[in-house]
Amino acid sequence: MTAIAAQPEASTPFGCLNDDVVAEILLRLPSADDVLHCRAVCKAWRRVTSSPVFVAAYSRRHCPLELIVPLGAMARERVLDTIPLLLTLDETRRRRRCLQAPHRRRYSSMASLIGSCDGLLLFEAQPGSAHVVCNPVTKQWIMLPSCRDSYVCGFYLHRPSGEHRLLYLSDDQHGSHHVYSLEAAEAHQLEQAFPADIFCSQRPLDCLNYRGKLHWQQHPLALFSCNIQYRVQEEDTSKIVAFDTESETFRRISLAPLINRNPEERLCLTETDGKLAMAAIEQGSMDLWVLQDYNDDGTWTRRLRVDLPHPWLLPVNAGVHVQDMILLEDCWNHSLCMYDLKATRALEQIQFDGHQPVGIPYSICRNALAFRGSLKRHAFFDRQDPK
């Protein structure tokens, strides 16, 4: 007698269908919450909706690249405004949803969003304090061990190991760094990047992730570096610091010529035509410099010089990684806009309601990040104590 064939698991509506057909059907679900509910139906559906292929396909179809903007009172209320970066969407759909920041009694109500990586968000209460990593789509979170006298300056995916890691800068007067792995739940010290004898106690500003390398236009090691005789060299005080997230090594890159000679000049790292670039904005005009050969500091060339539509348009930061675009802020009209570097024009502005009347300049956005939601499951969330 032949063995009885295994019956499809559970009496689900699609119990007789193979995984590929089920995946194609579930890919049509309009919201991530619907997918999460389907994961609880049976093991087969959980397997299908948790596979890397399904997660990637669903993100491409239903999770647009978004701009996350913490704004004043909204940030204090743990609400993060999200704006899809799709130029075809109207203003109503562009402001279609808000993300709730994690809230726990042990965590300060003044948490700040400081990082985004692979569908995950990183929050901190204050520089050098506890950090929280959360997936706003699956609503999972984990509180990380406190690292006293250290400041997070990078959040990245280490592709050789598949681990999500945090890069810390230590306040030890030497500018040393260490890395903490979410998956391994352990840290390791990096070799000394550069000799330094002056330390800046502020957390490094937002970095640009270009081809798996983090780049800072302002970083203590770039601002306060010195030679082996511990004498600060003028030519070293204004350089880009790059961190290779695979080899976990540092490099310094010289700025483009004629840049940073005026204290009123505002700089912004970006990417255009697949190359590292830097926008220099001063008094309503912008120069775009492109590093033609990434391995040769001497190949900076000025690609263009344009007049901006408003003299008070300033770059927000390097945390918005959209190729051929930079995010500009109009402090007078309390609005943001994406500037197209190829078309040399500002796209439709995004207006925000503020507590100050129009005509009084103030910054509405100190930290904006590009983000794409993900249904990816991470085992490190299981370590979090639900209490």
TrEMBL record:
Pfam families with a match to the protein in the record: F-box, FBA_3
All copies of domain F-box, residue ranges: 17-58
Protein known as: F-box domain-containing protein
